[in-house]
Amino acid sequence: MSLFMYRQRNGIAELTTRIFNIVYPLNTGIDSLFSDFDMVAVMMTVNKIGAPHFTAQDEEVKYLNFANLVLRGFHLSYLHNCETRRGQVLFWSASKVFYEFTDIERQFHKALYTIQLLFLKLLDGSFQTHMHCCYNNPPADQWALVSGLPTYVAENGLICNIMNAAEDKLFDFQKEPLDESGWTIKNVLSLPIVNKEKIVGVATFYIRKNGKPFDDMDETLMESLTQFLGWSVLNTDTYDKMNKLENRKDIFQDMVMYHVKCRKDVIQNILNTREVYDKEPDECDEDELDDILVKHKKIHTIFEFHFCDFKFSELDLVKCGIKMYYELSVVDKFHIPRDVSDNGNSNPTGDLKRYYTDLETMAMVTAGLCHDIDHRGTNNPYQMKSGNPLAKLHGSSILERHHLEFGKALLRDEALSIYQNLNGRQHETVIYLMDIAIIATDLALYFKKRTMFQKIVDQSKTYESLDSWTKYMMYETTRKEIVMATMMTACDLSAIAKPWEIQSGVVRRCRILGQGDLERTVLEQQPIPMMDRNKADELPKLQCGFIDFVCSFVYKEFSLLHSEITLMLERTGRSGTL
């Protein structure tokens, strides 16, 4: 007796015997209608013992139902083994799909040990092998492509299961051994890899380990496996794109640094140490460099409230920025390199320095220098309306976060970093404080924090002396950060408290009307009245409203906290009445 299993391949029913290893397709002349029931197998008996032929009674043997039960049990066991194996392969694949991003071959090499796999990636209509060679007309040594099977699968999106590759008439498989070991193609299973209805590759499996043809369970398993192969294509492509973007970013950053860095000969225009001391800036001590800055009398006006930078050259402003670090006495204390230069302005402290350490004040001054670096001349809402990439990169406080990241990028450069000699804890602290200080220049955040600042001011009045209040504040990190954030807002708006000729000059230099023109012409939108050139006659009234609602409140609360800032409040009120 022989047992024939019933199965389907490529949608065609067939019988196969595990005893003789023979397959009979049912579409080649054999009657396909055997039973009205779900057929799982066929039993065949030959050469009846003791009789010349089988009778009708033989057809109704009583043990047939029992044999049917055994066959069904065997079939269920077979399905169970297939599903178990499928689960093992898919579970292993799922655990490895995100493990290796660089090479898809390495992802599935171990998982597919029962077959030999060739993965072909479809790239711009051509096939790309794991060796990263693209072929439109493959050479003879690329036997998998020469057969035409991957191309057929990619074009038609069909699953092809070939039982006997050597006798197949549709595809031209090489019949001779493919290598010195004598490896030949016997049977093939090829499937498309689909991503959102788009074929991105073809996975072709050659020769089962037991040498038998692939069956319908193999097709189901491999069809599921191609989903992981598709994810792997996505992962490796994404990884490759990320690497390219990272390389482009590094190139762009190098280009920016090339134009931003100050050359050593330019540094001598600021700190002419070669002429005075016959040595480089990094070889001079703090007193020697301070003496060079003292000789520039114009720089001393930085300590006066009416300081105005309009008449200063860029190099003079750099000297002012350097002078601030010497005024804080942090150059030697934190070993700031002498040949690092920066640009910036200065503002009086109003005795608020008493709350902060030297490290914290250095972080705040650096944040002040970086808080508007690489400004685009437009505000945050314009970045969002225009679809600027910065708006996509930073969800809120768009320009402030750009200034912060740009400043950090400069400070990461060894030739520009003034923090390079800080220890790990100090470096972490100054970067954290810079984050708070620069982001605080977003007025939208100021309105959220000013109630908290008011409570701090009210609390200060409950202390008997300034010294006791100072001791309390020095250890209140959160309150210090709120005061620092409000200080950044006050400094950012400080032009309003300057003498009239200075603040009017600052206003004339603002490009708010220019942004209004851009909104009207480029975005085809109506700008807000303060930026609308057609409503310039309303500008004084709008500015007075801004002074009263925003500026006056800041300086009023600070003057209650420290009387030294009362002068700024008085000048702000005077500006609103001019």
From TrEMBL:
Protein family according to the UniProt entry: Belongs to the cyclic nucleotide phosphodiesterase family.
CDD domains: HDc
Transmembrane segments: none
Binding, Zn(2+) 2: D372
GO terms under biological process: signal transduction
This protein's UniProt keywords: cGMP, Hydrolase, Metal-binding
PROSITE patterns attached to this UniProt entry: PDEASE_I_1, PDEASE_I_2
Gene3D superfamilies assigned to the protein according to its UniProt record, in alphabetical order: 3'5'-cyclic nucleotide phosphodiesterase, catalytic domain (1.10.1300.10), 3.30.450.40
EC number(s) stated in the UniProt entry for this protein: 3.1.4.-
Domain PDEase: 349-578
InterPro entries membership: GAF, GAF-like_dom_sf, HD/PDEase_dom, PDEase, PDEase_catalytic_dom, PDEase_catalytic_dom_sf, PDEase_CS
Name of the featured protein: Phosphodiesterase
GO molecular function, one term: metal ion binding
PANTHER family per the UniProt record, alphabetical: CYCLIC NUCLEOTIDE PHOSPHODIESTERASE
Pfam families, A to Z: GAF, PDEase_I
Organism: Cyprinus carpio
Cofactor note: Binds 2 divalent metal cations per subunit. Site 1 may preferentially bind zinc ions, while site 2 has a preference for magnesium and/or manganese ions.
Lineage: Eukaryota, Metazoa, Chordata, Craniata, Vertebrata
Superkingdom assignment: Eukaryota
